[in-house]
Write a structure and sequence with these properties.
ligase, binds adenosine-5'-monophosphate-propyl ester, acetate-CoA ligase activity, Acetyl-coenzyme A synthetase, about 30% helix, alpha/beta, metal ion binding, 31 strands, metal-binding, GMP Synthetase, Chain A, domain 3
Length: about 650
């Protein structure tokens, strides 16, 4: 910790929507009178039929139920597109920047309306109706946003799957959502390399079954096999459907999307978000956290395959009539200056990215940044994992030239939008701290027994009351929702994160306290990687933990016990890494594999991960109590054979 505090810059206190006094006052009102506060905030969207009830929520584990604005009706696509047409039809809604710096495209709100309406009619032509699930497996091309909004327009529920996931991972999500339609592309392009999306979708469809349509957007025009009757090129049907498509009237609590995310146990969960509360919450957070003003060019570098892309590339910005930039590429292609060149090219005012990208670019030195101007920038953002103070300082000093505040935004797939964050005109910044709660958010830090801790303290982070953007259930498994989030600390939403609160009431997220790891901002369950490893015929047992990694934040350290008769070798190590990539996707590639004749277990057979974590972290001196182990000598072997981590 640098211990430094950054005051709100003078020009910001003049220009921003909210100063500190306004934040304090609005925050107090939001938590003391949530019905009044959110009832007013709901006025930021158009309603087809007004609601009469604002908040109807319960965190009681016997009856977890979350409803906001429940008897109102509206439509998300109407709010993100149609209602802007009269005032900003010719304003650019989406700036698309391709992987190749020569490729870009600007889409006005009027064009967005036409594209989304047509896409919606294509889905209808393939039989998609309100409530049906549509799987979207696309690269970062405008059609990803069109497809999401097209679903919203007709009341279909989208399930976007990150293009880096393997056919197996995709199949699991298709199956769980019972989705009969996949929207994909012939190929994706990232960092100059092709990604075989259609081939992956084919393999997934075969594995999952029940898929009757694969809609293929042409991105590279590569020739891909097309199965007659099932597979159709998007542009072929688009020509045949009308350009006009009315918006379906949706109940406030009708589902908008499912997004799968990893937990500490089992398969990824389908996080379900609904219509009105989600939109109100993403709109208000996008406006205040990024201090978004008309005319600003806003860029969030996330992929639409993650919640950040849903809430802060598509829904929040478009609900606010913003100009949102969508980037197909990666930070280091064609060079380490790419982000900064894109900022100069499109005159980006607000830039929102992940610590892992900042750390990687920081390692490349200042020169690739300094050769660009970045004078359009006025605000920087960070999301996805804790940002270490060194990376924060570099981002502030080199990228933002000491003039741009940094909003370090803490939230989760489950929360729908940002919950703990600075507001740039209101909050003094401390590098590494997500600072203070957003409106309507009541954080609580608890000890292991669930007792509320007060003042400066450290423990597990819970949220004690609902906010409109909160997930409503785990798709198809409400009991899992209750068990995962409301039973550890009864009556409270448990985030899975550890957190410290300092004497100024600032929150410092310390990372996950469960068996979830955060690798380069991607969330993974250690159990998922373990089950991929044990599916390999030569592996008998596996235990996976995270360890500190300079760039990725956390790396993946796997302890693997082989089947009797199998010998450890470098070839086998490479084979297992390749196997996990194939089973889950490249984001889950183990960084280190240590072959272990046996794993440390308690007498009841439970693997002691605490010890494995310490060994992976290189903290041998501090292994804690090992006397409960069935065979304490196992630990010596693990320590002696520890693999150097990269
Ligand atoms: O551990 C926290 C970390 O990311 C987790 C949520 O991951 P996911 O659902 O994939 O959503 C990521 C994008 C919102 C959290 O439980 N996390 C997210 N933002 C921060 C963070 N940790 C520290 N600081 C943050 N700003």
């Amino acid at each position: 910790m640098t211990g430094k505090v950054y005051e709100v810059p003078a020009d910001w206190s003049k220009r921003a929507y909210l100063d500190d006094a306004a934040y304090q006052e609005m925050y107090k009102r939001s938590v003391s009178d949530p019905n009044g506060f959110w009832g007013e905030q709901a006025g930021r969207i158009d309603w087809f039929k007004p609601f009469t009830r604002v908040k109807n929520t319960s965190f009681d584990p016997h009856n977890v139920s979350i409803k906001w604005f429940e008897d109102g009706t509206t439509n998300v696509a109407h709010n993100c597109i149609d209602r802007h047409l009269a005032t900003r039809g010719d304003q650019v809604a989406i700036i698309w920047e391709g992987d190749d710096p020569k490729d870009d495209r600007k889409i006005t709100y009027k064009e967005l309306h036409a594209e989304v309406s047509r896409f919606a009619n294509v889905l209808k032509a393939r039989g998609v109706k309100k409530g049906d699930r549509v799987t979207i497996y696309l690269p970062m091309i405008p059609e990803a946003a069109f497809a999401m909004l097209a679903c919203a327009r007709i009341g279909a529920i989208h399930s976007v799957v990150f293009g880096g996931f393997s056919p197996d991972s995709l199949a699991g999500r298709i199956e769980d959502a019972k989705s009969a339609v996949i929207v994909t592309a012939d190929e994706g392009v990232r960092g100059g390399r092709k990604v075989p999306l259609k081939a992956n979708a084919d393999a997934a469809a075969t594995r999952a079954g029940g898929v009757d349509t694969i809609l293929v957007v042409r991105r590279t025009h590569a020739s891909v096999p097309m199965q007659a009757g099932r597979d159709v090129y998007y542009d072929d049907i688009a020509k045949t459907v009308p350009a006009d498509c009315p918006c379906e009237e949706m109940g406030a609590e009708d589902p908008l999307f499912i997004l799968y995310t990893s937990g500490s146990t089992g398969r990824p969960k389908g996080v379900l978000h609904t219509t009105a509360g989600y939109l109100v919450f993403t709109a208000i957070t996008h406006q205040y956290v990024f201090d978004y003003h008309d005319g600003d060019i806003y860029w969030c570098t996330a992929d639409v395959g993650w919640v950040t892309g849903h809430s802060y590339i598509v829904y929040g910005p478009l609900a606010n009539g913003a100009t949102t930039l969508m980037f197909e590429g990666v930070p280091n292609y064609p060079s380490n200056s790419r982000f900064w060149e894109v900022i100069d090219k499109h005159k980006v005012d607000i830039f929102y990215t992940a610590p892992t990208a900042i750390r990687a670019l920081m390692q490349a030195g200042d020169e690739p940044v300094k050769k660009t101007s970045r004078k359009s920038l006025r605000l920087l953002g960070s999301v996805g994992e804790p940002i270490n103070p060194e990376a924060w300082e570099w981002y502030h000093r080199v990228v933002g030239e000491d003039r741009c505040p940094i909003v370090d935004t803490w939230w989760q797939t489950e929360t729908g939008g940002i919950l703990i964050t600075p507001l740039p005109g209101a909050t003094k910044l401390k590098p590494g701290s997500a600072t203070r709660p957003f409106f309507g958010v009541l954080p609580q830090i608890v000890d292991a027994a669930g007792n509320q801790l007060d003042g400066a303290c450290e423990g597990s982070l819970c949220i004690v009351d609902s906010w409109p953007g909160q997930m409503r259930t785990v798709y198809g498994d409400h009991e899992r929702f209750v068990q995962t989030y409301f039973s550890t600390y009864v009556g409270r939403y448990f985030t899975g994160d550890g957190c410290r609160r300092d004497e100024d009431g600032y929150y410092w997220i310390t990372g996950r306290v469960d068996d979830v790891i955060n690798v380069a901002g991607h969330r993974l369950g250690t159990a998922e990687v373990e089950s991929a490893l044990v599916a390999h015929p030569k592996v008998s047992e596996a235990a996976v933990v995270g360890y500190p990694h300079d760039i990725k934040g956390q790396g993946i350290y796997a302890y693997v016990t082989l089947m009797t008769g199998q010998q450890p070798s470098e070839e086998l190590r490479a084979e297992l890494v390749a196997w996990v990539r194939k089973e889950i996707g490249p984001i889950a590639s183990p960084d280190v594999i240590q072959f272990a004749p046996s794993l440390p277990k308690t007498r009841s057979g439970k693997i002691m991960r605490r010890i494995l974590r310490k060994i992976a972290e290189n903290e041998f001196g501090n292994l804690g109590d090992t006397s409960t182990l069935a065979d304490p000598t196992v630990v010596d072997d693990l320590v002696n054979n520890r693999q150097a981590s990269k």
